[in-house]
Amino acid sequence: MSSWWRSHGILLRTLYVLFLGQVVSFVLAVASFSSSFIADLGVDAPLTQSFFTYLSLALVYGSILLYRRQKLRISWYWYLFLGFVDVQGNYLVNKAYQYSSITSVTLLDCWTIPWVIILTWSFLGTRYSLWQFFGAALCIVGLGLVLLSDAGVGGGGGSRPLLGDILVIAGTLFFALSNVGEEFCVKKKDRVEVVTMIGIFGLLVSVCEISIMELKSLESVEWSTDIILGFVGYAVSTFLFYTIVPFLLQISGATWFNLSLLTSDMWAVVFRIFFYHQKVDWLYYISFAMVAVGLIIYSKTEKDPIPLPTLGDGNHNAEYQVLDEESTESRNETPAS
Length: 337
What we know:
Helix 3 (76-96) packs antiparallel against helix 7 (161-186), helix 3 crosses helix 8 and helix 5 packs parallel to helix 7 (161-186). The radius of gyration is 20 Å and the shape is globular. It is mainly α. It has helices spanning 2-40, 46-68, 76-96, 102-108, 112-124, 130-153, 161-186, 191-213, 215-219, 225-252, 254-274, 282-300, 319-333. Mean pLDDT is 76; it is low at 303-337.
């Protein structure tokens, strides 16, 4: 009887993780669609889009942190760095929608993987297996097909697709810096403090950069219901993304997370076909298949005890489980000391 309950418990947990993963994938696709929709309306304000996301994070999670009345365990300047690189990543990727298609931008987001491998290898001492390198290399080859299509071989879509692709790749470098920084910070403190500080410092950085780069653009915007709905959709979806992802990583780890994010690329294809009535080049499907296989190979080797980074827009690995075990051991050892 106990084995029956155990097997059904595992099944329910798996279904819950699958559901949560697809929710994350969908809200990421909605954020991408919102950015593309705003760009199509002639609004060029990528920093203002992220401003409302950081504002909501700072207000909601900042209130929780104030209620706890606890001091920061990590120096503020580390959070300033995280906020800065996160803002730059969001700015570059959102800016790319001015020039490239939604399918190109979402698929090229996977370029975060090689950047994270390089950074964690260099600064955190993380080591990877040959299979992980092979999986990452397969992803890069697949992404290269996107660049090939956008260069004109298959007709990529967008006014200046190659420029948009370059902006996305540059943005993923900043996202990788954010991922590695958050991985380091979350070992010191829980996710509420990290998300709160990213929200606060991301908000401050956004305000400074908006005052320098986007004031004239905002003044020229003729606000309409569609534009406001686009900004609301982006703010709500990205807030949910920042909120749900830590839970998914905590209960499942990076494997399900990576595979879940991969389906957001297919959502982008659906949006492009049904909302924009555009044809998707055959190279995209080959690229998607190669990236899918590469991510599966990469994720399957994450049973390695060395912590591995995850794919994505500013989130963590399943470090929480390791931290919980370490904190429990330290509490058990305290009376004996």
